[in-house]
Amino acid sequence: MARNYELLLLETIENLGLVGDVVKVRPGFARNFLLPNAMAEAPTPEKIESLKAARAIAEAQLSKQRAEREAVIARLAGITLTLVRACNDQGVLYGAVTQRDISDQLIAEGYGIDMRAVRLNNPIRRVNTEQVTIQFGRDLLAEITVVVKPDRIIEMETPSPQSQRPAEPSGDDAQLDEPSDDAPKGKSGKGKSDKGKSDDGKSDSGTKSARKSREKSSKE
What CATH topology corresponds to 74-150? Predict the structure, then answer.
């Protein structure tokens, strides 16, 4: 595995270091970006000494920038950003909302937010409400609410509660379901007169009398 290069930064590079810092970078990054663009070189004691004044200025600027970003993050906490976009009847946008769109709207509302500070994993492609992170560096961040609204009134195709209710029977159908007073009764219909009879045709009264006699004699 190739060894990392040790280089002296000739200017401040975000997420890497300040001017005058000696940093270690991958060989490819050094050869393809830093060295060709004269943003770094091999460190020497003389060169490091010559960049001390520039480094002090960079540190002061960095401190001021951090204070400004902290103030912006405090203002951003809990805000709602509203964007109006054209869409179809299903709420699908004709043009997705991107990091640049959110950054532009924030700038228009008085927040100095660069596009790179907007953490949006995927573009917003439909009318919706999203939580979006605004982040500076590693430790300065805030969550904002982004509401994407249609530019006109749309009716989303959702079934109404009434359409889900079962249809009630009509008047004619209800009459067919109700039993008629003239309907013939079943075999159990005439059974009131037969209810008191046992299987051999005798009245239950005799059976009851015999039972009472047995109970009386047992008590005596």
Answer: Ribosomal Protein L9; domain 2 (3.10.430)
Please tell me the distance from the alpha carbon of residue 152 to that of residue 87, in angstroms, as a whole number. 9
Give the span between the Cα atoms of 182 and 173, in whole angstroms. Answer: 18
3-state SS class at 4 = coil
Domain boundaries, given as residue ranges, for the chain = 5-50, 74-150
Nearest-Å Rg of the Cα atoms of the chain is: 44
Q: Is 112 exposed, middle or buried (0-12, 13-18, 19+ CB in 10 A)?
A: exposed
Q: List, in sequence order, every residue forming a beta bridge with 145; answer none if it has no partner.
A: 80, 131
Sheet holding 118-119, edge to edge: 80-85, 140-150, 128-136, 118-119
What's the pLDDT score for residue 188? 44
Q: Which CATH number fits domain 5-50: 3.40.5.10, 3.40.50.1000, 3.40.30.10, 3.40.50.720?
A: 3.40.5.10
187-210 per-position pLDDT tens digit? 444 444 444 444 444 445 555 555
Nearest-5° Cα angle at 93, 87 to 95: 120
Among the listed residues 14, 4, 99, 23, the one whose alpha carbon sits nearest the alpha carbon of residue 62: 14
Bridge partners for 9 per DSSP: 40
